[in-house]
Amino acid sequence: MLVVMRHRPDTQRADLPLPETQSFRVSDLDEARAICTEYYYEVALDLLDRSRPLAFAADLVRLGPVTVGDIRFGADVAIGADILDAYHVNLPVAGAIGSEHRGAITVASPRRAAVYRPGAGAHAGRWSADCRSLGIRVDRASLEAELEALVGRPIRGPIRFGPSFDTTMGAGLTWSRMANLLRSELENPHSALLQPLVAERYAQGMLSGLLFATDHQYAEALTAHVPPARPRTVRRAVQVMEADPTHPFTTAELARLAGVSARALQEGFRRHVGLSPMAYLQHVRMGYAREELRHPVPGRDTVAAIAHAWGFGHLGRFAAAYRERFGESPSATLRGR
């Protein structure tokens, strides 16, 4: 069943992608192939041992440019795609997947993720019956736009990722935990990650996180020193946020509007505002949340509903930040005390 978490009618925007989840359990090879094609790519899928029936299971969540699927076949299969139109990561939870991509042989395991880039195909020699993996599809245009925003200049894609990265330490561990958290939230129908304002920022975090987790030709540029944005540029970003606080801004988008790189804008905000761009946006949204708490709609508004509507995914942290800023709890404001 398709599960769609919708934002509050008074703050939802038509241009904000709605997160979606889907679960499948099929035993027919053609049905499994069709599901993989719909959510990923056109694939060739074959049983390697006809004595063991297929038991395909897929639990999927799509947040705009990022699709994460928990995939199991329950039988030994060979799977491959002749053409990839997106970046892709295989992150096994159990078992291993050996594959060939652009002439390189890679073995993905729970300790090492395999990375594939658009253009050429990828083929797994054998996906064993006991293997379970997160298959992560990342939209090409979105990832390359995120990289351009971070480095502050045009790039020539595709990004030449290394064939794999370590998921046991550093940025690779962080990114794998982000992917696994998103998968685990499939079991929570009221997850904050499925609220559109939160989902958009989480997906953007996965894009930038992947760029820091992997080796590629722009890796050094991501960590090089950049001068901060000037106060005029910072003021421009502030004006944009305050004029449209319900828009799902990201640092990358604000940087494009201000005409600087994302890292320069972050440094400019740190120096001249004392907050990151996203922290400042939350500051603005908290002010609007307070107004809703002070003037609630009877029978509809609760602290949790208002917090989630304005993009605050963790109710406890929202309440603590609210109390620190306004000197009272959100529930006290709601009660008019």
Automatic annotation (TrEMBL):
Keyword annotations from UniProtKB, A to Z: DNA-binding, Transcription, Transcription regulation
Domain of life: Bacteria
Span of domain HTH araC/xylS-type: 235-336
Keyword DNA-binding among record annotations: yes
Name of the protein in question: HTH araC/xylS-type domain-containing protein
Taxonomic placement: Bacteria, Bacillati, Actinomycetota, Actinomycetes, Micromonosporales
